[in-house]
Amino acid sequence: MNIHALASSVLPSQSIAVETYASRALNDLREWATTYSVPVTIIVNVQAVPKSVYEHLGLDLQKTYINIYTDYDIQDLKRSSTPDKITFNGDTYQAESSTDWKAVAGYKAILAVKI
Fold first, then answer.
1. What is the helix (H) or strand (E) element at residue 2, kind and residue range?
2. Which of 14, 19, 23, 74 has most Cβ atoms within 10 angstroms of its Cβ?
3. From the centroid of its chain, how far is CA 91?
4. How far is the C-alpha of 35 from the C-alpha of 52, rounded, in Å?
5. DSSP β-bridge partners for residue 108
6. Residue ranges per structural domain of the chain
């Protein structure tokens, strides 16, 4: 059963723009610069992360986090890779972690931090 498709039919959906990591190279100033793909707009479900759970999740109280629920393959922060950038409601976020339920319920949950 695709729970994401079912939930999307009753919960409000939002559009976000996702930019995937393309490359990393030294620029003219000899600083590492990351290049991202052209943004792709996708429809997702977004929920705020309540401040009351920040400590339980080990999150920084000075930052803003959101949860994104989608069937799109957003890449999170991993060793030797750069996470995808997400634009939502005029703000830019970075995918911090994900929980992949695609095989079981048809969605992936992404925790993203505002950058």
1. none
2. 74
3. 12
4. 35
5. 70, 100
6. 3-114
CB 43 within 8 A of CB 13: yes
Instruction: Kindly report the backbone phi and psi dihedral angles of residue 112, in degrees, each rounded to the nearest multiple of 5, phi listed first.
Output: -125, 145
Would you say domain 3-114 falls under CATH 2.40.10.270?
yes
Beta-strand ranges (E) seen in the chain are: 14-19, 21-26, 32-36, 40-48, 65-70, 85-88, 91-100, 108-114
| Phi, psi (rounded to 5 degrees) for 114 | -70, 130
pLDDT in tens, 5-18: 555 566 678 999 99
pTM exceeds 0.85, yes or no: no
User: % helix / strand / coil in the chain, to the nearest 5?
Assistant: 15, 50, 35
CB 85 within 8 A of CB 68: no
